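Section 3.1 - Work completed
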Amino acid sequence: EWARVVDSGLIAPTQLGQSMLVLMYAFIGFEFSLIAAGETRNAKATVPRALIGTVIAIALCYALIQLVAVSVGPDLGNSASPLVELARRLTGATGAIALSLGAIFSIGGGSLTSLLTAPRLTFALARDGTLPAWFGIVNERTRTPANSILFCGALSLALAVGQQFVWLVLLSTSVRLMTYALCIAALPKIETSLPKEPGQFALPGGLVIPACGFLLTIWLLSHSSMESFAIMGVVVALGSIVYRASIRRSST
């Protein structure tokens, strides 16, 4: 029923920001595709279009799912598994089972992607001398970054066992948003220091869209908890110490 959507009313800006902070978790991770950009043909033109197209497509899908959910049952928010309950109401037990299986494969695929990419990040940092060389050790038989895989796996397991899902979502989203804000802030310097290449992707309006994205990112970050900011501060401080020590060791 369209009236349920139109007459739903507006929520307070603070509540909206806190809800969007959790919702952003469904969108983060698109930057992982950049890890394989070096193996992409004409990456400077292809990767930006793929990123933008993917985010727009996912946003439209989520919006349509939410529209259907609100129309079918505004009480779904009280369910422990609202999408499964939505599928059950629309298509019966078969639909609920199919959606559950789809969710399992989707979550499993996302977890496997993180398992593949995260250790490669610490490995690359060690290779470039900004992390201790221990992270860059490669297994002789499998040719994989064994130590980085063990570290990322142990850290992920400790966080998953020791904390609740929503807490991890908020922390993960806050850290990603901070990274996004730093990357956007670096764009003016990148625009003036890197030469343009034929066929390179360019956003319309110059830096207008990045500026809007930066302000939106800062607004979302303002709704993070003080605990998240404290943890980010500790991580940044420890990372800075490790970085300085690694740089000093590699230069001697």
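Second construct:
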Amino acid sequence: MSNEVDLSVDIAGIKMKNPVITASGTFGFGLDYLEYYDVNELGAVVVKSITKNRREGNPPPRVIETPAGVLNSIGLANPGIDCFIKEVIPQMDFIQVPIIVSIAGDEIEEYVELASRLDKQDRVSALEINISCPNVEKGGLEFSTSAEQVEELTSSVREATSLPIIVKLSPNVTDIVEIAQAAAAGGADALSLINTVLGMVIDIQKRKPVLGNKKGGLAGPAVRPIAVRMVWEVSQAVEVPVIGMGGICSAEDALQFIMAGASAVAVGTWNFVNPTAPVDIINGLRDFCLKEGIKEIKDLIGCAWK
């Protein structure tokens, strides 16, 4: 049996040596993980969402552990686009794999400005359009729940950049397929799903919500079955590739998403539990393919549709 397995994938022209990437918001700018492993072992790196202006984020508490997951309400805290371009990008020279920058905004014009400015940055390989953050007052769910607005926003960003654009979808919608098709119609080159599931925890002694922002996004193993189902539905309904995420902790979890139709997978919350999870998953995918006689990981994409 050959010891060679081709784990490479191509997501809208973004060539990755394997299908494992980091999920926006859980990996910072990659600098915090340097002591754990070489990030260039990944397929790509997705950095945390950037907005036009600096954001301090939501009031604390911002994170609380829940059964099989984490509820967070960070609120898109970030240094803003000026600082990101002038100070952060120069620090990311050590990253040789594709860098995907997540962008977010309150208005379509903000997304357009961000896309236009990042279009000029050589180190940026693609943009992830975060239309689905549940932890901000404006933008966020306002965009992600309307097919019409999703298509309009995607189309506007498409006109502003030549970079591949990946639209990140929210599970907090009535019909995820309708939203996905709208993003594809607007010119999305790929889709990523799912973002967090809106939730709340009540402190029964204080008799009020625990999080400072009251509501937050649930992530972790608890949401995985929801995410797998949505990836399975969306990947069969659109022509563009899908990046699956939501509670991926192991190679077995990643394989569920790939077999459901995902061309790549993103590791999020589990980075906090096991900082080496992404490379562990890459090795696990290789081992599975060797054991099963799979020569190319691409052969497993959508195999559960049958």
